[in-house]
Write a structure and sequence with these properties.
Glutaredoxin, globular, alpha+beta, 4-stranded mixed sheet, 5 helices, 33% helix, two-stranded antiparallel ribbon
């Protein structure tokens, strides 16, 4: 091989390796907020995060109320609810970010953080969703709107909950409370 090609091959190999290995924790990923700003999940290091793909025109849209309830009940103890609008299932989130935000605020008084609309399935899925599928396996991939992933304070994937599982279901509450109880005390 020609000597001048060695640095090029080395760079290509390191780039391919970086993309082949999944990130270690959810903190490695960044979304765009619904307001258009960078939203790195590392911002939530030390907090428990419930990541939920959402849609405004779904039979499960009423779950926004339960998500807002969780956020109000547990945010002071370290829970972040993160809504991730997606149009992947049934075209049930066709609006713009401004329309989605207004819908959530007006109809459900949502004030928890939300991302810009992203894909959560397939080859074009946001990298967080590809990582979560790797962490939990094929059965844990979103199959509809309002699929939930629980991320621990250290960024590890802890649990997942199907669309049919209400945000305020006992299984969700127990999993959240276990993560909050394990969270180191915050000085302040």
């Amino acid at each position: 091989m020609l000597r001048w090609m060695l640095p090029i091959v080395a760079v290509l190999f390191s780039v391919a390796s970086a993309h082949a290995e999944p990130a270690g924790t959810a903190h490695a990923f960044t979304f765009t907020s619904i307001e258009g700003e960078a939203l790195p999940l590392s911002r939530f290091a030390g907090q428990t995060v419930l990541v939920v793909n959402t849609a405004s025109q779904c039979g499960f849209t009423h779950q926004y109320a339960g998500l807002q309830d969780l956020w109000r009940r547990y945010r002071d103890r370290g829970l972040v609810v993160l809504g991730v609008p997606s149009n992947d299932f049934g075209g049930q989130e066709p609006g713009t970010e401004a329309e989605i935000k207004a819908f959530c605020e007006v109809n459900f008084d949502v004030d928890f953080p939300m991302t810009a609309k992203v894909q959560v399935t397939g080859e074009e899925a946001h990298p967080f969703y590809r990582w979560a599928a790797d962490q939990f396996g094929v059965m844990a991939k979103p199959r509809w709107n309002f699929h939930k992933y629980l991320i621990g304070p250290d960024g590890r994937a802890v649990e997942w909950f199907s669309t049919a599982t209400a945000p305020t279901a006992d299984t969700v509450i127990r999993a959240i409370e276990a993560q909050l109880a394990a969270r180191p005390a915050q000085s302040g």
